[in-house]
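Progress note, sequence design subtask.
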């Protein structure tokens, strides 16, 4: 909104420098009052600005400006209401970024949460460097990303959000695929020795499956070399 209003040449309505004309003026002959056309023109533009301002607000703060008749009064009400909470909000945002942890969230959910904090700090005038943003994300990731983080921190330049997100998704996909492959290999492994399998190899296989051999009799004292 701070970028939009000046670009439209209407910020003078917001900051109060474009004052409201009198609603009525004397007629040319001075005998009666008539509606001031300048007032109607000003009122029309100001209401458009007020509508644009209200539509940009979150529901949490919209109630603060209910009843404001002009864009200037709405703007000043917001400034007064939010100025007292800005410092505490900045501290809260910094704390949330430092305590950022993935826990059981998906990669995309975790990154969106981190990006929201990063963007909001920039909005309140306390931007976090891209390098620090990378470090906050690395510190909050699950342990399975340790090898990836080790390789990324050695890069000369910090990664933009989109690139970092892509690296994490790719690593997660590869990590998940490798675990599925290992599980499939274990499930498909033969549980009984083939005629050409020596007993020593079968003993090793039984150990792989824990106590399966002892419970099901896959190896016993009567086994002999043929």
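Output:
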């Amino acid at each position: 909104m701070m970028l939009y209003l000046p670009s439209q040449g209407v910020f003078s309505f917001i900051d109060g420098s474009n004052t409201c004309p009198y609603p009525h003026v004397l007629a040319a002959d001075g005998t009666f009052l008539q509606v001031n056309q300048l007032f109607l023109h000003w009122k029309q533009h100001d209401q458009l600005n007020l509508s644009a301002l209200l539509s940009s607000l979150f529901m949490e703060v919209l109630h603060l400006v209910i009843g404001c008749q002009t864009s200037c009064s709405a703007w000043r009400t917001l400034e007064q209401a939010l100025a007292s909470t800005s410092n505490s909000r900045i501290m809260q945002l910094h704390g949330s970024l430092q305590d950022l942890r993935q826990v059981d969230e998906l990669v995309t959910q975790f990154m969106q949460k981190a990006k929201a904090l990063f963007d909001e700090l920039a909005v309140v005038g306390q931007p976090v460097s891209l390098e620090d943003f990378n470090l906050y994300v690395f510190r909050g990731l699950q342990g399975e990303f340790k090898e990836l983080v080790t390789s990324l921190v050695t890069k000369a330049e910090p990664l933009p959000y989109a690139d970092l997100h892509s690296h994490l998704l790719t690593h997660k996909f590869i990590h998940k695929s490798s675990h599925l492959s290992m599980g499939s290999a274990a499930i498909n492994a033969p549980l009984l020795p083939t005629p050409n399998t020596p007993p020593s190899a079968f003993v090793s296989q039984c150990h792989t499956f824990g106590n399966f051999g002892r419970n099901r009799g896959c190896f016993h004292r009567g086994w002999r070399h043929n």
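The chain has three domains: 1-99, 107-188, 190-220. Work on this subtask will continue into the next period as scheduled.
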